[in-house]
Design brief:
Radius of gyration: 13 Å
Number of strands: 11
Order of helices and strands: EEEEEEEEEEE
Helix content: under 10%
Structural class: mainly beta
Distance between the termini: 40 Å
Largest sheet: 7 strands, mixed
Shape: globular
């Protein structure tokens, strides 16, 4: 089992920045990818960014050049730095752990971008 606790998020302005953090506990040694997904109104949950335990990165096209994912293997955390925010980035952001047996999800943290 892996538990994920998210922090950060909240409200930001267009062009601004927000940072999300996720702390993983439990059998973290079984996790290959840690990452972030989001669910925006009217759309299915989608990948934002993920990073493997050997540093392989995955970014959604909308995240490239604006968002940066980082992982601290000692602290078992994965952070998502979001810059140049857009109103369409508004949504519920979920931390995800891709384990050897199944995927694990955090509870989600709301991100709202508006002026």
């Amino acid at each position: 089992q892996v538990q994920l606790v998210e922090s950060g998020g909240g409200s930001g302005q267009p062009g601004g920045s927000l940072r999300l953090s996720c702390h993983a506990t439990g059998n973290v040694n079984t996790v290959y990818y840690l990452g972030w997904y989001r669910q925006v109104p009217g759309k299915q949950r989608e990948l934002v960014a993920a990073i493997s335990n050997v540093g392989v990165l995955r970014y959604a096209d909308f995240a490239k050049g604006r968002f940066t994912i980082s992982r601290d293997k000692d602290k078992n955390t994965v952070d998502l730095q979001m810059t140049r925010l857009k109103p369409e980035d508004t949504g519920l952001y979920f931390c995800n752990a891709d384990g050897s047996d199944r995927a694990y999800w955090g509870q989600g943290t709301q991100v709202t971008v508006s002026s």
